[in-house]
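user: can you give me the structure for this one chain? C-alpha cells are fine.
assistant: on it. calling the predictor now.
[tool input]
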Amino acid sequence: MVTKNKNTKEKSDSKRVRTGIEGFDELCGWGLLRNRSYLLSGPAGAGKTIFGLQYLYNGITKYGENGI
C-alpha cells in the first residue's frame, strides 16, 4: 500500500484529470496528467472504446469537464 503526504496529493490533483473509472485513477496516481495526449492500444475487444466513453461521460457528469 502506498501512502502519500496530504500536501503531495493536493499538488498532484491540480495537474491531473480524474477518469472516474473505478481502480484506474488510483492505479495511475489519481488521474491522467492534464494537457497531455494518450494513446489507447490493444486488440479488438480489449475495451478501448468503453474506456474512452466512460472517461468522457464521467468527466462531463462528475467533474464538470468539457467533452471534446
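assistant: here you go. Residues 6-63 form one domain. The radius of gyration is 13 Å.
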